[in-house]
Design brief:
- This protein has helices at about 1-20, 30, 40-45, 50-60, 65-70, 70-85, 100-115, 120-125, 125-155, 170-190, 195-200, 200-210, 230-235, 255-260, 285-300, 340-350, 355-360, 390-395, 405-410, 425-430, 435-440, 475; strands at about 215-220, 240, 245, 265-270, 275, 365, 375-380, 410-420, 445-450, 460-465, 485-495.
- It is mainly alpha-helical.
- It has a three-stranded mixed beta sheet.
- It is elongated.
- The relative contact order is 0.13.
Length: about 500
């Protein structure tokens, strides 16, 4: 029963979070946006005290079920471990805790977090690692499948599906990181089970301090044990020593595989402080007791779930694709409305890429700055930041992009437009334009004579920096190639207009 409950809850969490990353329509966030907020590290960075306390209490009561039920990277390891087990059953063995590795990695992670070494910190964050895998490896497959269905539907004059294209010019480095992360985690899980989870993952190491004292634990009944070693050979955490009838609770993720594999009923999941129990001890093995334990385990997950947010008006991106744009060299990177400042973004962002996958206009993309390689920044080659769109702020679980209402976003200045005279087609090609002024949603640009003393001179844009919010509509729609004649320079700290 324990294993079945774990599999069901893990499947729900895995499907929900994966769909949230691969979905390009924005539908999934209405139902599953609460799931990333249950991730431990993201809750810490967002100062979500209720979730932090809930997860600590969950661990103190049930053990490290977070790693096998809530963490998507942990669930992914279980999937690869299960596939590896198909080839060779009973393949694990007991090994001692690698304190020399897991605790230094935790210390290194904390130092990177405090020192603001974003790239190192983001590489070690488990949820972020899964997010990169889902965004850069799974989402392209999902989109390709959608496009195949769209082609079939088009052949039959159906509009059930529509073609989606995603231009990812700056994603190659992060994609390579995602591929290597997937390969390492998959290979370790395939052959050794939970090695990555119990040696490298900083969240697993931190929760291990609490899981040692959990109220419910996997225990031996020594009188029933026949020393067959099946429990040890089926423990993917390598934490069960059948010879001494002991379990390393700092590494046990309460998956239930050992209980399932034991043919003699010598293992059980129960309360108490001792590691072993005699058959002469008073034990509650009634069906009612099993039902209570199952109820407690399942309700522990259900009580941490948040109510899905109300559906908002969906946006389709709206603009025709403009090709051959080259991103300008911005002195200050642009961060999305709701992030408040670049410093807040750097302090809280875990580089999970959920905001990147959710952005309907492909404005958000990973930074190419070595110190913040996976932190999202904004650029307007493929679209602009529409004032009515708040999707990134709705899904960010770490407090890097705080929730913001559409009306507040329309009055938040994240940067200001700058006109580059030498690139403007009005002067270089001697044509009338005015695209930037026509499409500015806040009326911050007007066309004025290039020669103030001659009303007949070509009209060029003039930017009112006090009104500009930095949305990038002018930069995106500027017809100049390859560099726009007007671009947005970011602000270190956002301003309220």
């Amino acid at each position: 029963m324990l294993r079945k409950i774990r599999i069901i809850l893990a499947a729900v969490m895995m499907i929900g979070i994966t769909w949230l990353f691969v979905d390009f329509t924005g539908t999934a966030r209405h139902w599953f946006a609460w799931m990333p907020k249950l991730q431990f590290l993201e809750a810490v960075l967002a100062l979500n005290v209720a979730v932090i306390i809930g997860l600590v209490v969950l661990t103190l009561v049930f053990g490290r079920i977070y790693c096998s039920v809530i963490c998507p990277l942990g669930i992914m390891q279980d999937i690869f471990g299960w596939l590896g087990k198909k080839q060779k059953k009973n393949r694990y063995t007991y090994s001692k805790e690698m304190k020399w590795l897991r605790y230094p990695v935790l210390v290194l992670f904390i130092i990177a977090l405090v020192a603001g070494i974003g790239t190192l910190f983001q590489l070690l964050a488990p949820y972020s690692a899964f997010g990169r895998i889902a965004t850069y490896l799974l989402q392209p497959v999902w989109i390709a499948g959608n496009n195949v269905l769209a082609s079939i539907a088009e052949h039959y004059d159906s509009y059930a599906f529509y073609h989606v294209s995603k231009d990812v010019p700056n994603y190659y480095v992060v994609t390579i990181i995602a591929v290597w992360t997937w390969a390492i985690v998959a290979a370790l899980a395939w052959k050794y089970g939970r090695t990555y989870c119990n040696t490298v993952c900083p969240v697993g190491t931190f929760l291990s301090f609490f899981s040692r004292f959990s109220w419910l634990k996997i225990k031996f009944d020594v009188d029933k044990c026949k020393n067959c070693s099946l429990c040890t050979k089926n423990c993917k955490a390598s934490c069960i020593d059948f010879k001494t009838h002991s379990v390393d609770y700092s590494r046990c993720v309460v998956c239930g595989d050992c209980i399932e594999s034991c043919k003699f009923g010598a293992l059980r999941y129960s309360r108490g402080s001792s590691e072993t129990s005699k058959t002469s001890e008073t034990r509650d093995t009634s069906p009612e007791s099993d039902s209570r334990r199952s109820f407690l385990l399942s309700s522990a997950m259900l009580t941490t779930a948040a109510i899905a947010q109300q559906k908002e008006k969906m946006m389709d991106g709206g603009l025709a694709e403009i090709a051959d744009k080259v991103a300008p060299e911005r002195q200050t990177p642009l961060t999305p409305p709701g992030s408040r400042s670049r410093a807040n973004m750097e302090k809280h962002c875990t580089g999970c890429q959920l905001c990147v996958s959710e952005c309907p206009n492909e404005v958000l993309r990973p930074s190419n700055d070595l110190m913040h390689l996976m932190m999202p920044v904004m650029s307007y080659e493929n679209g602009y930041c529409r004032p009515e769109c708040t999707r990134c702020s709705q899904v960010c679980p770490a407090g890097a992009i705080l929730p913001i209402a559409a009306e507040d976003k329309a009055s938040t200045q994240i940067g200001h437009a700058v006109w580059i005279k030498k690139n403007c087609v009005v002067l270089t090609d001697e044509v009338e334009c005015g695209n930037c002024a026509t499409h500015c949603p806040v009326g911050a640009i007007e066309m004025v004579p290039s020669d103030p003393d001659n009303e007949e001179s070509p009209y060029v844009p003039a930017v009112n920096e006090a009104r500009c919010i930095g949305c990038g509509a002018c930069e995106n729609l500027c017809p100049a190639r390859p560099h726009s004649a007007i671009y947005v320079e970011g602000h270190e700290v956002h301003k309220e207009l």
